[in-house]
Design brief:
Length: about 160
């Protein structure tokens, strides 16, 4: 292919990507040049994000760290856990799946200690950041959490 079409689009699930040349990037001015306006043009910005996760429903715990969001992929971590996943987005809403696992086992009693936790998520985003809520399956236990992403460096 010559760089056009859904095969090379960061969010190939979105039908409006067929008209966007990938070598221009996804800034709003470029999208508008190709007839794509408003909410349809707004995508999660590629870049490095500070993240903060808080466990919900009275479960003690949380984590801070960093995450790189790039072209539908998510990679990052903090002092104890790392995560990887994928997402798609459109019109200020995003959804995807993420897996989290310890990179450094600890003696602390933490809800995620010793487990690989996988979760689907849905949330919202703006030009400065994003957030989502999810339910993680941790062993035989379900844990709800909220994660906030704050853009540090866009690329």
């Amino acid at each position: 292919m010559d760089g056009w079409g859904p095969e090379t689009c960061a969010v190939a699930q979105q039908p409006f990507c067929d008209d966007i040349p990938t070598d221009f990037g996804y800034d709003l001015a470029t999208l508008e040049e190709h007839g794509i306006y408003g909410e349809r043009a707004a995508m999660i910005r590629n870049g490095l994000y500070a993240i903060s996760t808080k466990l919900l429903d009275g479960v003690h715990g949380g984590q801070t760290g960093v995450s790189v969001l790039r072209d539908g992929r998510m990679l990052g971590g903090g002092a104890v856990l790392y995560h990887f996943g994928s997402y798609h987005c459109s019109g200020g809403k995003w959804q995807g799946e993420v897996t989290s696992q310890e990179h450094t086992p600890t003696i602390d009693v933490r809800p995620f200690a010793g487990y690989i936790a996988s979760m689907g998520f849905t949330g919202t985003y703006t030009d400065e950041g994003a957030e989502f809520e999810a339910t993680a399956l941790v062993g035989k236990r379900s844990i709800r959490l909220k994660t906030v992403f704050r853009l540090l460096i866009a690329d």
